[in-house]
Amino acid sequence: MTVHTPAPAFQRTLKLDHLVVAARTLEEGERFIAGKFGVGTAGGGAHPLMRTHNRLLNLWGGAYLEVIAIVPDAPAAEAPRARLFALDSPAMQARIESGPQLVHWAVRVDRPRLLARWQAQYPERIAPVVPMSRGASTWSLTVPDDGAFPAWQGAGDGVVPSLIQWDTTQHPSAALPETGIALRSLTGHHPRAEAIAEHLAWLGAAHLMRIEPTSGAPGIVAEFELPDGSIVTLGESAESAEAAQSREAARRAVAEADEAKKSRRRAKSKKPDDEREAHAPDEAPGTAQDPAHALSRQPE
Fold this sequence. Notes:
Blueprint: E1 15-22, H1 26-37, E2 42-47, E3 52-59, E4 63-70, H2 90-95, E5 101-108, H3 115-121, E6 129-134, E7 137-142, E8 162-166, E9 182-190, H4 193-203, E10 210-213, E11 219-225, E12 231-234, H5 238-279, H6 291-296
Parallel strand pairs: 1-4, 5-8, 9-10
Antiparallel strand pairs: 1-5, 2-3, 3-4, 6-7, 7-8, 9-11, 11-12
InterPro entries: Glyas_Bleomycin-R_OHBP_Dase (IPR029068), Glyoxalase-like_dom (IPR025870)
Domain Glyoxalase-like: 16-203
Protein name: Glyoxalase
């Protein structure tokens, strides 16, 4: 059952800014995106405050996909703070150990609304605003002090978006190469779907993501359409992950059963030969009787 509370039209003020793919290394993330979409990333750079760096992929309609990773051997900061998007957490490190993952999303707050003022009015709803930079680009981003994902009433896990406000009128996607890749749908899966849906409606972002309840791990799933009409999906709901694991377990069970049958057939086909050899009379060399000699010994 879908839990989805759309925001009234007049509240639909927020826009999708970007999706976040986390990777162990930027190179690994770049290979992942190129393998998925058939086109490489571009632009990006280092975030000095967070000791991270990124690469970007343009999406249709003024958004982009971000690949982000920790900068290896980053210089120590005077007052280091936790990195954004939970990148420092052991759970996130374990999650991306098997490969890059779609972990988060960000929505854009356009002027005349000021993100810092909005946050000051509703600090229980909106995480602290942090000034960010990458080269000549500057912006404000909501990042909890501990670097975790934003949350509402304890529910977040990457499904509640970060809020971003750029300091210039030109969005970064305008400077990226066109790809023709369009985001078709964005779905969030969370055990506390009602709380997430209510918060998205309050933000004015409910029209951007469908929320589905899950009994498993939270996550987001994005579906893209490529210029040739083919579909690419990033992210995996807990249910689909469990279904895939079940299918793989069933496949292994069938393969093992087939191998066991083959082994039994081989053993069965070999058994008669063994039995014939076991029941054959033992004859010493040279003791076989010549038929003619045997006849000559018949009684007259």
